[in-house]
Design brief:
Low-confidence stretches: none
Largest sheet: 4 strands, antiparallel
Oligomer: single chain
Strand order of the largest sheet: 3-4-6-5
Shape: elongated
Number of strands: 6
Structural class: alpha+beta
Order of helices and strands: HEEEEHEEHH
Distance between the termini: 51 Å
Number of helices: 4
Strand content: 15-25%
Length: about 180
């Protein structure tokens, strides 16, 4: 019975770590990544459509992204959507493709980004603690309902804490990797 509570916790914690990774992909570093464009939608035949479904996205160089729309008439629509998305990039086009150049980050901007990354990691850790609390509450309810013994409860609570600690260290690893990426020139 305690195994299902812990398995459920692990699943939720995995989702939290994965969510943090996805959020980190959207953070602009000095390097080009198509993840920056994931949330951008363009109006295509009066339907809001994700950018990657109306154009091919490529990264020919470390600091350059190229967007090649399936239809040339979409270029102004895509440019407007990128500007409205407020991702800090200005599109330029040559009539066939749109180029997005990633300007190098200043030291000050890098420090701001790292501060933001740390806050995101802290929010993920808070989510872990909430999942841990919910798991412990469920275990205490099982013990109160006499479905597990007090000894089982203590063992399970220790396992819950061990699982939480391992996921918190995963968050720290993800944060360290992203910080390193942001701080490299």
């Amino acid at each position: 019975m305690t195994k299902s509570v812990i398995a459920s916790m692990k699943t939720n914690m995995d989702k939290s770590v994965e969510s943090l990774r996805k959020e980190y992909q959207k953070v602009r570093t000095g390097r080009a990544t198509t993840a920056l464009l994931d949330d951008i939608k363009v109006t295509y035949y009066d339907v809001p459509t994700p950018l990657n479904q109306v154009a091919s996205l490529s990264i020919p160089e470390a600091r350059v992204m190229i967007i090649q729309p399936w239809e040339v008439k979409l270029i102004p629509v895509i440019e407007k959507a990128i500007l409205n998305a407020n991702i800090g990039l200005t599109p330029t086009n040559d009539g066939k493709v749109i180029r997005l150049s990633m300007p190098p980050l200043t030291e000050e901007r890098r420090k701001e980004i790292v501060k933001m990354l740390r806050k995101m990691a802290e929010d993920a850790k808070i989510a872990m603690r909430n999942i841990r609390r919910d798991g412990n509450d469920e275990l205490k309810k099982l013990e109160k309902d006499k479905k597990i013994s007090e000894d089982d409860l203590k063992r399970a609570e220790k396992e819950v804490q061990d699982v939480t600690n391992s996921f918190v260290s995963k968050i720290d690893e993800v944060l360290a990797l992203k910080e390193k990426e942001v701080m490299e020139v």
